[in-house]
């Protein structure tokens, strides 16, 4: 089973296969020489679907599901990247985390050997095949100012060729316009949530646009890390219960 929190800036490290593991979309960029070039700036565009090798990602995800391990030779670059955020947050206690974990696992039948694969990415739902391989879909979003601050507070990113640092203005010239283009339905849904017109939870079939129809959207706004984890854990619990009924 896969659960998928996603935003344009989230980066965390891969954890070992066991009850759960973590797979990053950022590990499936094409080589830099194959990236599209933005016609306005002349810069490599890392933030569009054409920059991602979706076929390789789906193949890896399928292998993990079938074998409960990464393919031989798989090497994540994500654990080489500094998180680099100006935000200060209070760690969540282990007791609280254990309570969330227990809440989720109470929905998993004891006779089933279930492994969770958490798929992390900024553009998971533009590819229909990839979207169809994910059982529980979540989209975590944040305001423009927060996303820009997170992106620009990082030094750079490990790549197949070495290291990439965003040129000045890259967020406003490349990242944000592409985020609005490719995740537009989620941006509109988030705006509706802020107006009090939407809860973020998806409902019966046919009540949403195709891209967002089976995705729970969580807007962080000014929420704390703990409140976000609580919200996401609650949604995973709800969707797991529906899956195993």
UniProtKB/TrEMBL annotation:
Protein name, as recorded: Ribosylnicotinamide kinase
GO terms of molecular function: kinase activity
RNA-binding found in the keyword field: no
Gene coding for it: NRK1
CDD domains to which the protein is assigned, alphabetical: NRK1
Organism: Podila minutissima
PANTHER family (alphabetical): URIDINE KINASE
Keyword Methyltransferase applies: no
Keywords: Kinase, Transferase
Top-level taxon: Eukaryota
Xref: InterPro entries: P-loop_NTPase
């Amino acid at each position: 089973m896969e659960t998928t929190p996603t935003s344009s800036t989230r980066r965390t490290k891969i954890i070992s296969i066991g009850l759960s593991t973590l797979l990053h979309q950022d590990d499936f960029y094409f080589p830099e020489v194959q990236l599209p070039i933005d016609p306005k700036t002349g810069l490599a565009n890392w933030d569009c679907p054409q920059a991602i090798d979706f076929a390789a990602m789906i193949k890896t995800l399928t292998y993990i599901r079938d074998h409960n391990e990464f393919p031989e030779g798989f090497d994540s670059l994500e654990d080489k990247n500094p998180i680099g955020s100006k935000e200060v947050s209070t760690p969540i206690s282990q007791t609280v985390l254990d309570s969330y974990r227990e809440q989720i696992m109470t929905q998993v039948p004891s006779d089933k050997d279930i492994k969770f694969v958490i798929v992390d990415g900024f553009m998971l739902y533009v590819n229909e095949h990839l979207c169809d391989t994910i059982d529980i879909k979540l989209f975590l979003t944040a305001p423009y100012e927060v996303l820009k601050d997170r992106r620009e507070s990082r030094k750079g990113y490990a790549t197949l060729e070495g290291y990439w640092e965003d040129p000045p203005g890259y967020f406003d010239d490349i990242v944000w316009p592409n985020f609005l283009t490719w995740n537009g339905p989620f941006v509109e849904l988030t705006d509706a949530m802020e107006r009090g017109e939407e809860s973020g939870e998806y409902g019966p079939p046919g009540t949403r646009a195709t891209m967002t129809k089976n995705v729970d959207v969580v807007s962080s706004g000014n929420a704390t890390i703990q409140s976000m984890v609580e919200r996401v854990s609650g949604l995973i619990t709800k969707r797991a219960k529906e899956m195993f009924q």
